[in-house]
Amino acid sequence: MKLHVFPLLVSVASASWSKNLNYRSPSEHHPSLGISIHRVVKRNDPASSYDPVKLNFTHGVASGDPYPNSVILWTRVAPENDNSNSSLSVTGYAPLFDHDNEKYVKVSKSPICVEYKVAQDKSLSQVVDSGTVFTSSDVDFTIKIEAKNLKAYTTYYYQFNVCGSSNKSPIGRTKTTPHADDDITAVSIAVYSCANYPFGFFNAYGNPVRKDSVDYVVFLGDYIYEYKNGYYGWGDSIGRIPQPDKEIFTLYDYRKRLATYRTDLDLVASHQAYPWIPTWDDHEVADNVYRDGSAELNNTEDSFLKDGGISVDQRKMNAVRAYFEWMPIRQVDMDDNLRIWRTFSIGKLVDLLMLDTRNYDRSITDLYWNTKYIGEIADDAGRSLMGSRQENWMYRTLSESAERGAIWRVIGSQILFSRANQSTLNNNQVNLDAWEGYGANKNRTLNHLYSNGINNNVFLAGDSHASWVSDLVWLDEEEYDPVTGAGSIGVEFAGTAISSPCPYGENITLARANNFSSILQSANSELQWSDLYYRGYFELHFTRDKVDANFFGIPNTRLYNGWEIPLANFTVRSGANRLQRPVAGGVVESGSLKFGRVVQDNVTLDTASGKWFKS
Ligand SMILES: *[C@@H]1O[C@H](CO)[C@@H](O)[C@H](O)[C@H]1NC(C)=O
Ligand SMILES: *[C@@H]1O[C@H](CO)[C@@H](O)[C@H](O)[C@H]1NC(C)=O
Ligand SMILES: *[C@@H]1O[C@H](CO)[C@@H](O)[C@H](O)[C@H]1NC(C)=O
Ligand SMILES: *[C@@H]1O[C@H](CO)[C@@H](O)[C@H](O)[C@H]1NC(C)=O
Ligand SMILES: *[C@@H]1O[C@H](CO)[C@@H](O)[C@H](O)[C@H]1NC(C)=O
Ligand SMILES: *[C@@H]1O[C@H](CO)[C@@H](O)[C@H](O)[C@H]1NC(C)=O
Ligand SMILES: *[C@@H]1O[C@H](CO)[C@@H](O)[C@H](O)[C@H]1NC(C)=O
Ligand SMILES: *[C@@H]1O[C@H](CO)[C@@H](O)[C@H](O)[C@H]1NC(C)=O
Ligand SMILES: *[C@@H]1O[C@H](CO)[C@@H](O)[C@H](O)[C@H]1NC(C)=O
């Protein structure tokens, strides 16, 4: 192994450790859960440094959780593409891959020193913030810093480089939010959920980059899936086998899985172009995860033994730790390591609430073997999707948002809020794993909105792999007219998956999917449009007077391409609290529209060239 003396050792002392937020994760007040910086520093051997030229920015750059004066910036710089399974061993030595000799060795290596700068121009000459920061195997060589001293609602460019070297990361673009009291006129977001690597390319992520059509990306969960390829997915046939090639449990497993997903070119492009505001759903940990377990992991010793000795808590901790290392997000409460629920004020225009209806404090859900029981208890008043702390925060935040006069309240929920009676299509009358399985929590939410006269509510959801657009109604309580929308208190835009398959068959035909959409649409009075066929995403364009929602379908996720079909467009007028009539202008491209027609134009936009072609 070649040893290189680090040229900037003097500055090592002054450069910041704690600036890399990942060393403090999940909680700086509980070092036993995070990384002991003290131990990493002590291990530091100046004689054993990496050759700066051999280090690699392996997964591009990312930004997220924009505030008016700051934003989170992310990169990974490593001696190899593989991930680390180090979480600082007791000896203080982290196992590392020795590239020259192609094997794992136990050595003490000095940390990697990285500089970053943030500028107002693409050529990075008008620098407004810069700094020096460390990373090491302990945090999988990731770097997450908070760029500060920024101006509100402004675009910035940023780059990392290995200290004292011209080895640089790609240049990223990001954007701060406006101040809460800024009277901005417009803001746009792209909304995503459910990216399954072995099921297809993440083309949906790339299209808003190619069109340059939004300000921010909102992600509602299922950024990765925990399964082994083949169990769910056809990765072999499209050259996308997620690593490690097994169901994931350990810290290394979750890091490696995130790293595999982050090789998708359109995902990398989205992270490089837009600040993300993500939350997780179940698959960032495991299927149908809740407070105390998941579909395939009970909180029992028997179950742990089946899973290689990893308990519910340990698995959740591994998943969450890797997630915070890899995602460009803040930890809003360093003493509450599972807290991801948080708020963003985007001027006077939008207050965005990002929920955690999964990991934080969710009462038991449908785990497939207990469906009947969950059906029986679904309406128990004690059941909560969020736990009382988060529930109370949500009600308080919605009230405060209305009081401060924010025009739109956008609630980023993982799971479908509106009822989806699927009785004629399957035996489960409703999806007990969605809000429907937590009737009291749902009613408390509706009661809060109706009784406090809180309006302009826009619920978002993912999770279901299909598109559902509804008026937001309290059935059996407030009279609702599906024709006019009278009686509703807002709208719900629930989006389809980036690549995860249709819930009614992974190779369903368009005709069959549209037939099913009609059936669902007639069984649910408030469901105005649904489409089951297309994978895709939607954009929301907010102004003071209205919000426009544009749904896009991706015609082919088995190929890497920039094609998309505009499926349906909706408008919500400020103060109307319902979809504008005629809903979707009376015409959609696919699915089933309650009071309108489906007309197949069969034209697709190639977002890369900006040209339309007949499909
Ligand atoms: C650097 O990372 C990129 C992206 O993962 C990879 O394609 C490339 O092979 C790596 N280069 C080296 C020298 O490891
Ligand atoms: C790190 O974890 C991987 C995957 O489990 C394993 O192949 C490798 O041997 C481990 N390395 C060390 C040094 O323990
Ligand atoms: C969890 O417990 C239930 C009820 O005993 C059982 O049916 C199921 O197979 C268990 N699952 C696992 C993964 O152990
Ligand atoms: C929710 O409210 C509706 C309408 O009042 C009522 O019919 C239903 O029983 C309530 N459900 C629960 C769980 O409270
Ligand atoms: C769906 O189609 C893919 C690709 O042709 C195939 O690999 C897969 O087995 C099919 N799935 C089913 C359930 O038929
Ligand atoms: C759906 O298909 C079934 C079987 O072909 C047919 O009987 C039914 O009328 C169709 N429903 C709608 C709403 O198109
Ligand atoms: C679902 O719809 C079917 C028929 O469309 C109806 O018979 C059933 O009562 C509904 N179930 C619920 C829970 O609303
Ligand atoms: C939706 O709006 C876009 C323009 O934003 C338009 O190109 C498209 O045809 C519309 N789609 C439908 C189904 O009305
Ligand atoms: C679009 O394609 C479908 C199925 O191939 C066909 O039935 C329909 O007539 C086409 N519509 C137009 C406008 O070309």
UniProtKB/TrEMBL annotation:
Keyword Signal belongs to the record: yes
Phospholipase D N-terminal domain mapped to chain residues: 59-176
Xref: SUPFAM superfamilies: Metallo-dependent phosphatases
Pfam families xrefs: PhoD (PF09423), PhoD_N (PF16655)
InterPro entries linked: Metallo-depent_PP-like, PhoD-like_MPP, PhoD-like_sf, PhoD_N, Phospholipid_Metab_Enz
CDD domains: MPP_PhoD (cd07389)
Signal recorded as keyword: yes
UniProt keyword list: Signal
Annotated signal peptide: 1-18
Domain PhoD-like phosphatase metallophosphatase: 190-551
PANTHER family registered for this protein in UniProt: PHOSPHATASE, PUTATIVE (AFU_ORTHOLOGUE AFUA_6G08710)-RELATED
Protein name (Swiss-Prot/TrEMBL): Phosphodiesterase/alkaline phosphatase D
